[in-house]
Amino acid sequence: MELEKFSYDNEIVRKFGLATVVWGLVGMLVGIFIATQLFVPSLSFNLPFLTFGRIRPLHTNAVIFAFVGNAIFMGVYYSLPRLCKASMFSKALSNFHFWGWQLIIVAAAISLPMGFTTSKEYAELEWPIDIAIAVVWIAFGINMFGTIIKRREKHMYVAIWFYIATWVTVTVLHVVNSIELPVSFLKSYPVYAGVQDALVQWWYGHNAVAFFLTTPYLGLMYYFLPKAANRPIYSYRLSIIHFWALIFIYIWAGPHHLLYSALPYWAQSLGTVFSIMLIAPSWGGMINGLLTLRGAWDRVREDPILKFMVVAVTAYGMATFEGPMLSLKNVNAIAHFTDWIIAHVHIGALGWNGFLTFGILYWLIPRLWKTNLYSRKLANFHFWIGTLGIVFYASSMYWSGITQSLMWKQFTPQGLLQYPNFLETVLQIIPMYIIRMIGGSLYLTGVVVMVYNLFKTAKRGSFQKEEDAEAPPMELKREPFKKGSRHRWLEGKPLQFIVASLVVVLIGGIVEMVPTFLIKSNIPTIASVKPYTPLELQGRDIYIREACNSCHSQLIRPFRSETERYGEYSKAGEFVYDHPFLWGSKRTGPDLQREGGKYPNVWHYLHMENPQSMSPGSIMPRFPWLLTNDLDTSYTRKKISVMRTLGVPYPDGYENVANDDLTKQSENIALDLQKNGAPAEPNKEIIALIAYLQRLGTDIKGDSSSSVK
Amino acid sequence: MFNNYLQAIEGIEIYPVIGLIIFLIVFISVVVWVIKIDKNYIREAERIPLDNDNEADETISLKNLTGGSNETKV
């Protein structure tokens, strides 16, 4: 048969590779910066755009979407054409994808520190950027499926299935979780509220981990691990089961992020059951990866690439065992809201994503530049210092998480909280924060060494933009239908494959989501729960802008240790007007759901100006600009109407008088502050924030003073 | 304590059961498929990533395997 000539585009792989390294450095550096802020809070320099709350999403977004994202694309643009024996569908789309994605990252890097955020974890970007993400993602999809359709290899290798599932599911997740109504160019409210919003968000958040940090990387593992080991995957049959079981089960497990929350009990249990079941396919994948190296462990001792990959796959196994364990309610009761979760995600991020990326880079760069690695010694050094970094990081975070959780729950023999002051439990774990920062720095040092090593490698070689290849065209004639060839049939048909994986993913999504949407009408309305006043709404938006929810939860679980400390546990009906929900996922500071009325206004005023003045030793940054910034009331009207569109029962025409009510309420608060010696003016942002904080959790106390007339 | 919300939805308890049944059906069908797949076909499929005509590529991986002497100098 005649061979067709074509070429592989290495230039796009190089671009994504470079972006991976650059954004990786940035993301990790930002991580170390905010890790240091936790024990040197003055490092925020009293500047809004350097505070922990605003920078933390920058770190998570940079690592997830910039570092890991670019690494995924690097791997896909290298492996997909080679697995398909075809050049990419469109070079123009490849380049559009690359530059579009980098532009989105830059937009995130600017807008997040400026305080433009939706407050939803890993989906913080505001609506114009959400749209840009959708456009670029679709371009990537067209490019990928175009390549798959014009392939010369009949069979779609397992890596390609993982790429397809990734694309399909991320599309669904992104669209569903980003449905929001704009108030202005960079401000929007989600259509979901309270419990529903939380469920949608963690369905998204969990599956972002599954389908952005896991499935594409499994695809890369199934391609690059056999490449590096120069032997086929241990069991191709296992990989088929791995794939279908994984994408089927993962989507169900989202509610395990909301155990003991105001989420209905059955949904929590469903999340737990599917999380436990998830161990099986995850470990199937891990075992498949590790056993690929059976009989080749001598080479693992020599080859840094294989070392990185082995630790990556092992970290995947650890994280996917720990995840289901954390979804058990009794374990979750201890781990949730603490640094344990931080340790868990970093086993995944540093070990699985980081190390697999490094292994691939060490394998790929010498090939793209047609040379050998500059220094194997340095690569080995990187491996060891990186591993040490992970050990330092994880052990300190486990220690601090468990310590703090146990302190929160400790009662005296008399039945009182042993550590009623939250700050005491924070000061106890400060040494762990320092060790964590050292661990992160070791890890970053390794990356810097890698960059040097790869740079030197590239310098000694010569980069080949296009790599020529040839292959016979794909036979179009239908093979006779043989026994057991049904999956083969599916593998030969990319479109059917896409539909099948979409259906599988949607079943999980629908079974999980539909009842929650039905719930809306079934959540018992608590009569005393009223919409926020215009001033409180403005204060809430400041709370969101400063990302207070990065460190403070608003969700009291039904434990005695929590009701003793914070007050009555949270009820689903209390959040019906919360667009978005602000439950938070980490308590670096105390829960704030029942903050209203706990302290006088002046306490909040002074505390925002300098937390250490009210709580000596506090690690909260200062927010002095809140005292001097004028509150922007020009959007009050729009905000009220958007909220009404979303179902918040503001009376008709209320938006016209909203600012009058706002002024009245802020004058009252300012008067109270002035009486107590604080030089407060009614038109400052701090007034709105205080109004919101004093409202928090007061509804069910039957306090009607702050409700809308 | 949240059971009252869930009880308000008719037939809610069937949801997880339906989910489990769907999952089991899919899972069992996949396992059956996988067992039935032709051996030669598997052998062919799993070698796709290794199926590389590029000579230069092979030389590099061979050097890597043998601990390529020129890579260790720093």
Please give a structural write-up.
- The complex is a heterodimer of chains A (709) and B (74).
- Chain A has 709 residues and is an all-alpha fold.
- Chain A folds into 3 domains: 1-154; 293-474, Cytochrome c oxidase-like, subunit I domain (Cytochrome C Oxidase, Chain A, Up-down Bundle), CATH 1.20.210.10; 534-701, Cytochrome Bc1 Complex, Chain D, domain 2, CATH 1.10.760.10.
- Chain A has 26 helices and 4 strands.
- Chain A has helices at residues 10-37, 52-84, 91-111, 127-149, 158-177, 194-229, 236-250, 265-277, 279-291, 297-302, 304-326, 329-335, 339-368, 376-409, 422-428, 430-460, 486-491, 494-519, 534-545, 560-566, 601-609, 611-614, 625-628, 636-645, 654-675, 685-695; strands spanning 4-9, 180-184, 187-190, 466-471.
- In chain A, helix 9 packs antiparallel against helix 11 (304-326).
- The longest helix of chain A is centred in the first third of the chain and has 36 residues, at 194-229.
- With 74 residues, chain B is mostly helical.
- Chain B has a domain at 18-51.
- Chain B has helices spanning 3-7, 14-36, 39-46, 55-65.
- The longest helix of chain B has 23 residues, at 14-36.
- The radius of gyration of chain B is 26 Å and the shape is elongated.
- The N and C termini of chain B lie far apart (66 Å).
- The chains are: A mainly alpha (709), B mainly alpha (74).
- At the A-B interface, helix 2, helix 6, helix 7, helix 8 and helix 14 of A face helix 1, helix 2, helix 3 and helix 4 of B.
Short overview:
The complex is a heterodimer of chains A (709) and B (74). Chain A is an all-alpha fold and 709 residues long.
Bin the strand percentage of chain B.
under 5%
Percent range for helical residues of chain A? 55-70%
* Distinct helical segment count of chain B: 4
Shape call of chain A: globular
Give the low-pLDDT segments of chain A. 703-709
Features:
heterodimer, A: Cytochrome C Oxidase, Chain A, disordered C terminus, B: 74 residues, mainly alpha, disordered N terminus
